[in-house]
Specification:
Blueprint (H helix, E strand, L loop, with lengths): L2 H6 L2 E8 L12 E3 L4 E7 L1 H4 L2 H13 L1 E7 L2 H9 L5 E4 L2 H10 L4 E15 L12 H11 L3 E3 L5 H13 L8 E3 L4 H11 L2 E5 H7 L6 E5 L9 H8 L2 H4 L5 E2 H4 L5
Parallel strand pairs: 3-4, 3-5, 7-8, 7-9
Antiparallel strand pairs: 1-5, 1-6, 2-4, 6-9, 6-10, 6-11
């Protein structure tokens, strides 16, 4: 396996998928940003949880007189909401499913806006020994072999899809008491993994924002890091720096090399 294939397996590409604008959300808003008459809705998970969506929406509202309804949902549920025309657009990281949606015609446009990494985090003593792994699949083989506790969102989110891709490459169908499915969002699952000293695949943005709270976990497997670039891209690339000392997303220019 080449270094690029290892890295591309651990990169989340954030994109917008768009529909023809609707009247406003047909699904209850988790939060609303802006107070303008031009209303639209967007479904996403961690970019909303971590505040990136609010930063983008409030800046956009200043010059476009908009109100954005954010609907909190993982990538899989977000795509379902878009297909059912319950939201106007989504911000997700599930490249194969996104491209298929555009091909099928129920999403009208796919716009790459940035990226972050996926990390495999786990207890500092690393009972499965994944620090020596050469790929995510190798790491998962070690975890399954040791039956060390592993947490999965199990919710068809972008992170869950990425996790299942790695299990498939490892030739493993994870099951058993050691494999714990939470059916919860990224931050909640990360915190549970920390509390119960288990392994978890998290995106880098969630990790950067939460790592000071982590008592038991550390990054045990990762790829390279990325940087950033222009108005919306500048917000994406620098978002979180004032809170955490570093940006928690990467720019679209860098992400393109993995969008194959």
């Amino acid at each position: 396996m080449t270094s690029k294939s290892i890295l591309s397996g651990l990169v989340g590409l954030f994109v917008f998928l768009l529909l023809v604008p609707l009247a406003f959300a047909q699904t209850a808003c988790t939060e609303s940003y802006g107070a303008g008459p031009n209303q639209f809705s967007l479904a996403t998970g961690s970019p909303g949880e971590l505040g990136l969506l609010k930063a983008l929406a409030e800046e956009f509202a200043k010059t476009h007189n908009t109100t954005l309804c954010w609907v909190k949902a993982g990538s899989g549920e977000s795509m379902k909401l878009l297909k059912e025309k319950k939201v106007d657009m989504i911000m997700v990281h599930a490249p194969a499913a996104e491209k298929k949606a555009v091909e099928e015609g129920w999403a009208t446009k796919r716009v790459l806006i940035g990226s972050n990494e996926f990390y495999i985090v786990g207890p500092a003593n690393d009972p499965a020994g994944i620090k020596t792994a050469k790929s995510a699949a190798d790491a998962y083989k070690l975890i399954a072999g040791s039956k060390a506790k592993f947490f999965s969102r199990g919710d068809n989110s972008g992170t869950h899809k990425k996790e299942m891709d790695a299990w498939a490459k490892a030739g493993i169908a994870p099951a058993g008491e050691w494999y714990i499915v939470t059916k919860d969002f990224m931050m909640a699952t990360l915190k549970r993994a920390d509390a119960e000293k288990g392994y978890f695949m998290t995106d880098s943005s969630t990790w950067v924002s939460a790592k000071k709270e982590m008592k038991n976990l550390q990054i045990l497997f990762r790829g390279d890091e990325f940087v950033r670039s222009a108005e919306g891209q500048n917000i994406i690339g620098t978002y979180g720096k004032n809170l955490y000392g570093e940006g928690i997303y990467n720019d679209a220019a860098y992400a393109k090399q993995y969008d194959q």
